[in-house]
Design a protein that fits this description.
By secondary structure, the chain is mostly helical. The chain is built from one helix and no strands.
């Protein structure tokens, strides 16, 4: 029969992988929010008639 240590090591690795997945999920959610905000700003900028835009 397999040693309990093997299962403990596997469980530790699974827990670590789960934590990494959660961190990646949080980063992706942040990036998606930032992308939506950027798209919103770009949409507003492009909807302003050129005559109403300030020249820089």
């Amino acid at each position: 029969m397999a040693s309990p240590i093997v299962f403990e090591q596997i469980q530790a690795k699974l827990d670590e992988d789960s934590q990494v997945r959660e961190e990646i999920r949080n980063i992706v959610q942040t990036l998606e929010r930032q992308a939506r905000s950027t798209e919103s700003i770009l949409s507003r900028v492009h909807s302003i008639p050129q005559a109403n835009r300030r020249s820089t």
